[in-house]
């Protein structure tokens, strides 16, 4: 059996849950007065006053905060290593003065959780990797801090925590999106410390794109999660490209959630629109425009998770970035089976099947995507 590494798997540490429970505005957790599971209200469209609070958002249970539930899920699905990350909306909404303290609290908690699990599973560090569950983590960033230097310091501090591998970040950056020049010190620190950035969506598209505020009551989360999330990722990374982030920081390493949203599929169109844009200097305009092509960035700076639930999406990701840049993930604990959590999760088995179907002629490539690539890229030893 190949080594299986899950690079897209989330937690809300208990301190974060407690903070969400104390809040009354998005993001927050609502505890119903009956014995039902609490509700997680993190998307702005979830906070619909016409829906009773105990039906808003989605149920949230111990799979979000209890690491023993994560370990059982790993065992059930044959996952050897999980690289856990704080789930959305991370620390984006934290008061500026508290951002640093929350980042340190969350990241120290993630480090302590990994260290304890790894030690408990193998006190002498002698057991083979495929006979235990091992954890690493990606850190959260204090992006709402008053000064980007706070973010830079945390990126550097994370390098000193033995089980931390990379950082997770949403698409709002310091509040103005990822083409904001004020982020340059952050890109510089990521490049200098050779830190992988996991870019993950949260904000989606405005409700109007989906038919207005009652779209959620009609179709639940299908439109924001299936379409809003991937387009958000695509727009964010395209704005980085257009503003020259990859020209200024050619050593950046970015893992895109959900196989890059729609970036692999739309890369040709993006490149064509750049080529035909009169504003850009190459066409006689007055704006620099990107010097590196989308294709070059996809094959040099971008890694893609294999969380796309189907062969066509995976083939687009493969063609755009290459099989050595594709990494298995689950998005646990989101997308649980609705008929009870004891059986295999279709959200996981669908991705296993897509990987096997796409690379059926090469078991080595299947092994790379399932875990070999992640172990190499994130130095998981
Ligand atoms: N997956 C996530 O990571 N977050 C969500 O809110 C939904 C699915
Ligand atoms: Zn996710």
Automatic annotation (TrEMBL):
Gene3D superfamilies: Metal-dependent hydrolases
Lyase listed as a keyword: yes
Keyword tags: Decarboxylase, Lyase
Residue span, Amidohydrolase-related domain: 145-380
The keyword Lyase belongs to this UniProt entry's keyword annotation: yes
Pfam families, per the entry: Amidohydro_2
InterPro entries given in the database record: ACMSD (IPR032465), Amidohydro-rel (IPR006680), Metal_Hydrolase (IPR032466)
Family: Belongs to the metallo-dependent hydrolases superfamily.
Name of the protein described by the UniProt record: Amidohydrolase-related domain-containing protein
Species annotation: Aspergillus lucknowensis
């Amino acid at each position: 059996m190949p080594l299986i590494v899950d690079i897209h798997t989330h937690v809300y540490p208990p301190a974060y849950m407690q903070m969400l429970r104390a809040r009354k505005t998005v993001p927050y957790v609502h505890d119903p007065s009956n014995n039902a599971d609490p509700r997680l209200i993190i998307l702005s469209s979830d906070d619909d006053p016409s829906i009773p609070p105990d039906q808003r958002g989605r149920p949230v249970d111990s799979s979000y905060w209890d690491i023993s539930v994560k370990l059982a899920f790993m065992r059930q699905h044959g996952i050897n290593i999980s690289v856990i990350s704080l789930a959305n909306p991370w620390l984006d909404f934290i008061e500026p003065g508290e951002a640093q303290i929350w980042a340190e609290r969350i990241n120290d908690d993630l480090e302590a959780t990994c260290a304890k699990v790894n030690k408990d599973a193998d006190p002498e560090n002698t057991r083979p990797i495929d006979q235990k569950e091992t954890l690493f983590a990606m850190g959260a960033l204090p992006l709402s801090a008053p000064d980007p230097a706070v973010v830079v310091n945390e990126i550097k501090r994370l390098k000193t925590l033995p089980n931390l591998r990379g950082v997770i970040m949403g698409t709002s950056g310091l509040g103005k999106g990822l083409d904001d020049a004020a982020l340059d010190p952050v890109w510089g620190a990521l490049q200098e410390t050779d830190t992988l950035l996991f870019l993950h969506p949260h904000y989606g598209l405005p409700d109007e794109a989906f038919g207005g505020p009652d779209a959620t009551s009609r179709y639940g989360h299908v439109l924001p999660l299936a379409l809003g999330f991937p387009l958000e990722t695509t727009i964010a990374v395209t704005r980085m490209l257009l503003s020259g982030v990859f020209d200024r920081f050619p050593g950046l390493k970015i893992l895109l959630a959900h196989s890059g949203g729609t970036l692999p599929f739309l890369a040709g169109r993006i490149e064509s629109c750049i080529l035909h844009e009169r504003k850009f200097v190459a066409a006689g305009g007055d704006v620099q425009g990107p010097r590196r092509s989308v294709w070059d960035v996809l094959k040099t700076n971008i890694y893609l998770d294999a969380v796309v639930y189907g062969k066509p999406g995976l083939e687009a990701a493969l063609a755009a970035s290459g099989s050595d840049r594709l990494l298995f993930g689950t998005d646990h604990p989101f997308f649980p089976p609705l008929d009870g959590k004891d059986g295999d999760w279709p959200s996981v088995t669908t991705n296993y099947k897509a990987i096997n179907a796409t690379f059926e002629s090469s078991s080595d490539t299947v092994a790379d995507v399932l875990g070999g690539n992640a172990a190499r890229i994130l130095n998981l030893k």
